[in-house]
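User: I'll paste a sequence; please echo it back and then give the predicted structure.

Assistant: Echoing your sequence first, then the prediction.
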Amino acid sequence: MRGSATTLPPAFSLLKSEFNDFLYAPIGEEGNDTPLTVLSALARLGIDPWQESARLAQLSKDLATQSLTSMIAKLPNGRWAQSDAGAIAARLVALLPGKSDFAPSPRATVSGRFPGSSRTVMFLIAAALGAVMLFAVTNLMRPAAPLATDNAPAVVKSDPGK
């Protein structure tokens, strides 16, 4: 398929791709001279990058800058002065789409999670564990069936005609 432009199906597309400019922007360099992106920084802080981007985009520029400044201040090994965290955050917040530039998923809740998804996963895990336990109890704990052996001494029959 040379020369033809194809688009990926939604299942293979990046989530919230309208945040790519923000997520892939460098915060600065780390101690080992590698650039640190917003995406990597948020992931290291245990924050979902796309959910946080959506949250920050819904805030006013000032609140988003304050929030991002506190996150940048928590990052270790950065080659930037802590006093520069506010200016870095302001530069990055400017890359976020405006409130009207994107529409959050209609199924997403306020927390950014899809309703019932974690409950469904927990139910499936519990059902699988229950099935394994039921199998173990019914098949592995059952006493073995007695062997069909005759304990009586063997009788040798002789043929009287011989």
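Strands lie at 26-29, 35-37. The two ends are 91 Å apart (CA to CA).
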